[in-house]
């Protein structure tokens, strides 16, 4: 009888422990996209990322975290053991194949409950291989120095002590002419060569509360044969060229870049006032950039075309600019009329015209955006009818998730509330925002590709840390959007900085290229005075810049726009 009572008591306690988590009504954040991989005998760690200001106020609200094995629903112990729950992390110091599965962390506050699932995958190592079954990819460029970073930062920040040993294949790496160790987690490769491909493994031995364990990660670098030197401009040669009035005139900018692989150099024409138009219907414009590969590099050519020379074209300096990460190389020519005496006779006549032109250009530069927006409002019939291009959305919005919480609010609040409040409700644009407009259970890859193709513009919202902490979804959206914009030329891009940024070293080349070509719109300046309410008037300076870059189509004026007309 006593034995039966003991069994009943144990069952009641266990049932209560498992039922506490199952019966709670917690806000469910689903399953983390990133999986954690390990092999039998090595350590693995799952992190509960619910401790975030985007979930609750972490500074003033007390909380506790419990871990559960989703397979059995049982709560995992908080003390030493296998697995071992500590702070926000669940540690497996000696993983086994049986440890593979889904684990759920539940975060409780006095008034709320949140849960998030994480997946642990335990795969045995491949026979005859010293690397791990799941390798990460990092990039090395031939003929340049390179760095491989050990992807074990989660461990380094939370253990008591650790050491790292690097291997190439099965052989340990030692410092010398080829390799050097930078800090505790980086491997420096001097003068990368094609034969530096292969698998590199960083094996970490660490001490956690007196327990010694180890883990490892394998990197398979993508070695790219890419290098180039500073461009050389062969034509023009800082010369003066004479031509007659009303003549057709062309001049070629010829640039040679010595190198191999992809050569990222941009060549274009400009005057002292502005870049030359790329619109072929303009009287003065530049033709598209042409490239010709040769054995030791690449020739690039851009032609400036004057359909018919006018008085204002003469006595100006036309500069060819070759831009790359090696710097800017320029060369120019000055265009003068064939009959110098004719210019002398017209000096007084054109003095007033020049003054008028300069004044007009200055006024246009100051009020350019206002003028264009008002033309769209007063003459809507001259623009393309909405939907005639087959697109559904005016813009596809890419924004960082759960990463920024400045004075103006989180990036998600700006993307999901502020942006639609102005562009959709007040200006009639149609936006696609992933997470708001995507269907539940819809495949991420297909959804992103399909809806970007249905959009006319890509609005990229970012902070200082966006491109150093890219999630897989955000990285994929950014890559697909930039490829469609820069490679296929089927999409315009609008860059919006949500906070002040001083270091762009981790930004993708594609984003930096767009930033250099067309600039960015800075939301953080709107909130520099730390106002409690966001600026939501379409006639404010920030929203005018956004609307100016949005697709042009036949539409009515934004609400509040009439007030903006009175303030011009």
UniProtKB/TrEMBL annotation:
The keyword Protein transport does not apply. This is Interleukin-1 receptor type 1. One of its GO terms (cellular component) is membrane. It comes from Albula glossodonta (roundjaw bonefish). Its main location: membrane. Residues 41-105, 133-220 form the Ig-like domain. Keywords: Disulfide bond, Glycoprotein, Hydrolase, Immunoglobulin domain, Membrane, NAD, Receptor, Repeat, Signal, Transmembrane, Transmembrane helix. The chain crosses the membrane at residues 342-367. Belongs to the interleukin-1 receptor family. It is found in: Membrane. SUPFAM superfamilies: Immunoglobulin (SSF48726), Toll/Interleukin receptor TIR domain (SSF52200). Residues 391-550 form the TIR domain. It is a single-pass type I membrane protein. The keyword Glycoprotein applies. It holds the Pfam family TIR. Residues 1-19 form the signal peptide. One of its GO terms (molecular function) is interleukin-1 receptor activity.
């Amino acid at each position: 009888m006593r034995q039966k009572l003991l069994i009943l008591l144990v069952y009641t306690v266990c049932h209560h422990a498992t039922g506490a988590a199952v019966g709670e009504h917690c806000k469910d954040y689903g399953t983390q996209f990133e999986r954690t991989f390990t092999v039998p005998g090595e350590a693995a760690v799952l992190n509960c990322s619910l401790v975030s200001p985007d979930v609750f106020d972490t500074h003033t609200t007390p909380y506790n975290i419990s871990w559960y094995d989703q397979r059995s629903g049982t709560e995992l112990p908080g003390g030493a053991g296998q697995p071992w729950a500590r702070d926000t992390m669940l540690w497996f110091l000696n993983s086994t194949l049986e440890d593979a599965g889904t684990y759920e962390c539940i975060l409780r506050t006095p008034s709320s409950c949140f849960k998030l699932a994480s997946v642990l995958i335990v795969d045995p190592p491949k026979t005859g291989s010293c690397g791990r079954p799941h390798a990460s990819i990092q990039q090395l460029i031939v003929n340049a120095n390179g760095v491989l970073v050990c992807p074990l930062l989660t461990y380094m920040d939370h253990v008591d002590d650790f050491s790292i040993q690097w291997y190439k294949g099965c052989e340990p790496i030692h410092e010398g002419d080829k390799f050097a160790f930078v800090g505790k987690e980086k491997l420096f490769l001097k003068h990368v060569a094609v034969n530096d491909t292969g698998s590199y493994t960083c094996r970490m031995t660490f001490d956690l509360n007196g327990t010694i364990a180890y883990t490892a990660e394998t990197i398979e670098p993508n070695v790219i044969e890419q290098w180039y030197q500073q461009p050389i401009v062969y034509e023009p040669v800082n010369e003066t060229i004479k031509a007659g009035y009303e003549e057709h005139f062309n001049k070629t900018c010829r640039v040679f870049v010595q190198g191999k692989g992809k050569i990222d150099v941009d060549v274009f024409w400009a005057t002292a006032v502005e870049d030359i138009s790329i619109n072929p219907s303009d009287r003065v414009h530049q033709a598209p950039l042409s490239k010709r590969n040769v054995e030791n590099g690449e020739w690039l050519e851009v032609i400036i075309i004057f359909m018919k020379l006018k008085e204002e074209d003469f006595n100006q300096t036309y500069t060819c600019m070759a831009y790359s990460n090696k710097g800017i190389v320029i060369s120019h020519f000055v265009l003068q009329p064939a009959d110098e005496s004719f210019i002398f006779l017209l000096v007084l006549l054109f003095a007033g015209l020049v003054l008028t032109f300069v004044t007009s250009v200055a006024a246009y530069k100051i009020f350019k955006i206002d003028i264009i927006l008002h033309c769209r409002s007063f003459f809507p019939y001259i623009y393309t009818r909405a939907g005639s291009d087959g697109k559904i959305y005016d813009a596809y919005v890419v924004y960082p998730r759960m990463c920024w919480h400045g004075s103006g609010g989180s990036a998600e609040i700006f993307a999901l509330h502020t942006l639609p409040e102005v562009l959709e409700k007040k200006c009639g644009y149609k936006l696609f925002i992933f997470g708001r407009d995507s269907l539940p259970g819809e495949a991420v890859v297909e959804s992103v590709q399909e809806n970007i193709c249905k959009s006319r513009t890509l609005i990229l919202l970012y902070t200082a840390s966006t491109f150093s902490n890219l999630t897989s979804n955000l990285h994929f959206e950014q890559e697909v959007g930039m490829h469609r914009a820069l490679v296929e030329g089927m999409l315009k891009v609008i860059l919006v900085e949500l906070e002040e940024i001083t270091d762009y070293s981790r930004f993708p080349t594609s984003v930096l290229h767009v930033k250099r070509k067309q600039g960015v719109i800075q939301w953080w300046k709107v909130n520099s005075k730390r106002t409690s309410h966001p600026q939501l008037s379409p006639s404010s300076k920030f929203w005018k810049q956004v609307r100016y870059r949005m697709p042009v189509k036949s539409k009515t004026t934004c609400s509040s726009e009439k007030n903006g007309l009175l303030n011009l």
